[in-house]
Write a structure and sequence with these properties.
alpha/beta; Rossmann fold; 2 domains; globular; binds flavin mononucleotide
Length: 238
Amino acid sequence: MEITVLGVSGSPRKGATRYAVQEALQAASEIEEVKTRFIDLKGKDIHHCIHCDRCVREQVDYCPAFSDDMGEFYPLLLSAHGWIFGSPVYQMNPTGLIQTFINRLRPIAPYIGKGHYATRVGGAVAVGGTRHGGQETTLESLNNALFCIGMVVVSGGIYAYNGGAVWSRDRKEQGAREDEIGLSTVRVIGRRVALTARLLALGLEHLPKKPDPGILVGFSSQEELEERRAAFRRPREE
Ligand SMILES: Cc1cc2nc3c(=O)[nH]c(=O)nc-3n(C[C@H](O)[C@H](O)[C@H](O)COP(=O)(O)O)c2cc1C
């Protein structure tokens, strides 16, 4: 079984984050049966989500509102078993570029309720110019986005906590290369995403019967999930 781990660099330039995400993917590729793909958001034309909800109404797994660079990413985001989101730290948060990319994930939201992402894995990498410049708050934000997709979000556990954290000293790739401790946390995340994704994919394949989506996303039955959905759509009683 081939497992795919997708890395996304949210930097608008060829710098430290691109290098760090590729380092995570390199570590991921050392896990048996794992292949990697890389999306560099640098120079990409990605319009912000305008909440038109056309993707929801028309039930399509792409954005019907804009013909921009986002279109080529949806198939990759649907097929990959693991995602690694990487961002520079901007004012202690992810960049607007990766936030825009994340906001445009709405067309794949229906797959969450189908249980598609319940056995897929996410992890995060943050690269700040300062040693304690907001890597942890940036990781928290990226991890929160992965939680919203319903993925199994991995921590780095010992020494890597909530993700890969790099201190670049504002020196692009060279700065990241010199932060050996930071890079070790990045590699931990790469391996953890890859190995956990492989375990989940193999486990799912070997179950005697594939669970209903409702069970996969954490409800006691498919009926309970349907009831929860219906209640969400019902108007509130005054
Ligand atoms: C608008 C802006 C805001 C930034 N804010 C922070 C910050 O809050 N904390 C920090 O450590 N570095 C901050 N930086 C520095 C970048 O995070 C740092 O240079 C990072 O390595 C850039 O990644 P890149 O080389 O992949 O583009 C900021 C840089 C810019 C351009």
